[in-house]
Amino acid sequence: MRNRIYLSPPHMGGEEIDYVKEAFETNWVAPLGPHVEAFERECAAYAGTKAALALSSGTAAVWLASDLMNIRRNDVFFCSSLTFVATLAPLVQRGAVPAFIDSEPESWNMSPQALREAFDDARETGVMPRAVIIVNLYGQACDMDNILPICAEYGVPIIEDAAESMGALYKGVRTGSFGKFSFYSFNGNKIITTSGGGVLLSDDEESIGRARFLSAQARDRAPWYQHSEIGYNFRMSNVLAGIGLAQLKLLPQRIAARKTVFEKYREAFSGAPGISFMPEPEWSASNHWLTAITIDPLKAGVANMRLMEALESENIESRPIWKPMHLQPVFEGMKYYPHEGRDVGRELFENGLCLPSGSNLTEDDQAFVIKTISRLLR
Ligand SMILES: *Cc1c(COP(=O)(O)O)cnc(C)c1O
Known about the structure:
- The structure is a single chain.
- The chain has helices spanning 16-25, 34-47, 58-68, 89-93, 112-125, 144-153, 205-215, 238-269, 297-300, 304-313, 344-351, 363-376; strands at residues 51-55, 76-80, 97-101, 131-135, 158-161, 169-170, 173-174, 181-185, 198-202, 275-277, 284-285, 291-295, 335-337, 352-355.
- The protein is α/β, with parallel strands linked by helices.
- The strands form three sheets. Strands 1-9-8-5-4-2-3-13 form an eight-stranded mixed β-sheet, with helices on both faces. It has a three-stranded antiparallel β-sheet with strand order 7-6-11, with no helix packed on it.
- The longest helix has 32 residues, at 238-269.
């Protein structure tokens, strides 16, 4: 049996270990330290935001953003339905109530039309959302120019989930800079990794300062441990920030490599009946974190799950498109706004598949993936 081919494994460059060693040699193994400070500076510079806060996960960034926005029990928020649950889990745990917005077929991200309908509804019922969460799926930006003005019109702040989209552009501007609060994830499967981690980004330096306070147990300025509020333990460790510093230098290469992987798949399957790729509108420059396809079973002669099984039997990892939140058992009965009467999220989920897309996927391994898929296609 061949070695397993993973969907999106970590890809170390070599220098990471030098930063980790430096942390050990200077005994900055304890949380915080110079690597964390440098990593925050570089993340803010990269995203083009005024401030950044390095955290133990992307999910922690959502917790802090919802805390800073003072999102509370029974508050309503709008959220892109086609995503990973971490996008909204912290708000739900705070007792807030989601209303889900469908995707548009052009970008697979939040449909501006469906968002408009949700706001029309909110105006009629008088229940305005406290936040809108947009998600840049699989490394592609949302249609910002058609989404941001709707939110601005109603004065509702945006949380931008850029967990998957570090390095992706919207009309030449880096994602991670479009929300009142935005965040990247450095989980092991993302385009760069700190093994686990995230960063909260914003131009609001005061809010990031408060998030800094909250993320380290909300200690008052006092010589003893004194608390006037309850916080979290969410900070990134100095050891892991060192990994991040080395990975950050490699990001342009990582994006280029993922794009090459995507292009090879496209070349291989562009003529295949029933196979389509996640579209890339002209305003988008994706980081191609994952290559995602949809399969029309009637034209292709095979369904997505059958393809996934066939890949698995060759020890190749693939994964269906995210199951939309409005189809999740835990969110049964929640409001959902379809795109022009269509359930685009469901269509993508039912027909989609993410292919092995690592920046360290070898040519040989990718050729094997392509051959395995080709065998099943009509
Ligand atoms: C990975 C991911 C997150 C969560 O990030 P963690 O660092 O794993 O907590 C949130 N949203 C999306 C869309 C993700 O892919």
